[in-house]
Amino acid sequence: MKTLFGSRQGWVGISTVLMLAALITERLTHPLAATLFDVASDFFSLLGVLLLTFTPIALEVLIKRGKSEEAVRWGRALGGVALCFAWLLHLMMWPIYCIAWGGLVAGPLMTVASFSTRSGAKLDESLQFWLYGFLAYAPLVATIVLLCQQAFLKTLTDNLARSRRIYWLSLTAAAVVFLLRPAVMGYHIRQALSTKSDAQREKSLTLLRLFGAEYDLRVRAFRRPPTYPMFLAGGGIFTSEIFGSRWETPDEARKVYFLMTGTPFSKAPTPPAQKSLLDQNDQLQIEETGGERVGSTVNGLKLSLSEREVRYSPSTQTAQTHWTLAFENTTSESQEARATITLPEGAVVSDAWLWINGEQRPAAFGGKAQVRAAYQEVAVVQRRDPLLVTCTDPRRVLIQCFPVLPKKSMQIRLQLTQTALDGKLTPAQLTEVNFEQPKTTVERTKVNGKPWSGEALAVARLALPAGLLQKAAPTVGPSDVIVAVDTSASVGEKIEITKFIAALKTLPSGSRVKFVNTRIEKGEESGWTDAAQVTESFLRSQRFVGGVDAVPALKRLSQPTERPTTILWLHGPVPQEAVSPQPLLEARSLHQNTPSLVGLLVSPGQDVVMDALATDKRIHTLEGTDWPAAVQRAAQAQAPPAPNNGGANAPLGGREPALGGIYLAPNADADSQTDWARLAATSRVLRAWYTGYDQDALAKAAARRRLITPLSGAVVLESLEQYKRHGLDPNSGQPQSGAPDVATAIAPEPGTLAFVSLGGLIFLARRRRR
What is the pTM of this model? Predict the structure, then answer.
């Protein structure tokens, strides 16, 4: 090596430079991750690459300076670990070596051809092809250098047997880390999916966290692993096929990923193994476009404006908000902006607009299925300019805008009508989004033209319109409250144990409290304790980690009880791909006297369980960390309804307990121009939605009133022909205050309108002269 190809020190330098260049190129462009595996996917894989890069330098320094027997032995051991990773890397990269020969041979030819045709683009491609050809052989060069160094170190030791033992021990340890670890991970992934034992599942999830399987699962959750036998795409080596198992599907990997990390895969960072594919053809985004879920975050799509203008009336204690949102797309492909908005209790989206070609276009209202069908055709098939606003349950609104064109923006406006009883104005919130919300987003809120930062508003004596009646809240008696704690990582980050326990102590005298860990079906429980004597000990003893499928535990707790009982479920996001609410839905449908369920989502995100149960009047959905409000709702859930004249008066909000104790007479929504009229009409629609009666008629009524409810929605299309094709009329309903009539969107051009007006004035002037 020294006489034919130069000095050993020179090759050490070449090896190090090539390995560093290969590592930097891979991290920036991901050619290897997008085809076979990510060579530096996690800590152990990155450690192996760094060992292969810098061990030749360390051994060369040892050869020059270290003359002790012990130093030589440990140098051989370090080289053995690096060589172990190198051999495993070669096993996985042999297809790359075959392709790299083509790069080395074809690269120069492509370069010459590009110079002859004077094509800069082809020159860039040829140089890139040539570069990849050289860098693919970086591990092979490093391996040859290490073998030469190991041979030289062997001549420096006197105790060859002991040196050999240390060498083989280091090889064995490296094999355990780099070879058996992925195999064990694959086995426990299958165990977490297939075992019926809660204890075994938790053991497997704990070991997956210990072995650092987050990245491997994230890659599998985004796509099926490539058909590369016996090797693991995403940084591992051998798969669970060693144990006779099969690859898990992306849906299965997504479930394990959530249970292990507590993060829905759609909110996880895109792995490098997927990024280069996403730049070319984002199959995941294509599948999610036009769907009914917010889905994964789109890199490069961001919120640039969030502006609220609130008109508040102190006498009626209602507020109408015009909320303007603008989305900016910095990518090279059209994207769909999707978001879930959590409304204050009793609020309703009462109109929507979209800017098309600089003009503000109002929405057409119709049945929920009708407007979604129109959006699907125009947005997904024709890829034109629509906005869709639907309601998944009374407090969650889904907005969808497509397409946000490349390097351009899209602007929408929503009108929200809500109560502000006692001057408490609770703004709607974006709780789940598929776009970025950078710090540069312009956010401002004004109430009656003045900046507002959340303080209580001035109030006058409440003047309810005719047909609305405020009644005293019924007396809440003692009840049993089961605090079902989702011990996930997201709950652990948000829960304020001291404040929550203090809120529980405010339950009516005689109430009892019991804590249950919902991580497994028969999780740890505390005994029944008087609410005034409840302590923090149970919550302090829990370990909040990963994600939780609480459905089995909630199903067990939903059995009929003798005393009035409410389940207060503290939980984090519950994604559809990880949890199925069907068993709980079936269990609660079998009995009428099952405990009421108050679900408090403490961290923003998808909540598939509460969404599936939303039509049950015994279900109450809350979001945030307002612990006193959650405990108060748990106490009220079992309270008898206030007298309402035999059912002739509907509760505000559509079900008991009535919002603010306000009830509606049959003619309460006669005047559709006022805030209270819209709230009353919404309550009647929700009451039908909860009971299942007269839904078709009330859906049409909601569309006429321009209200977005679980039965009705809104869509903005581009032309009147599109509206007519889907049986929609953007002129239906009475225009809301501040809303432009659709006629302005299809009116003649300003020049034409001015010409016609001038002609009319001349005609009238001539008639007067006569």
Answer: 0.75
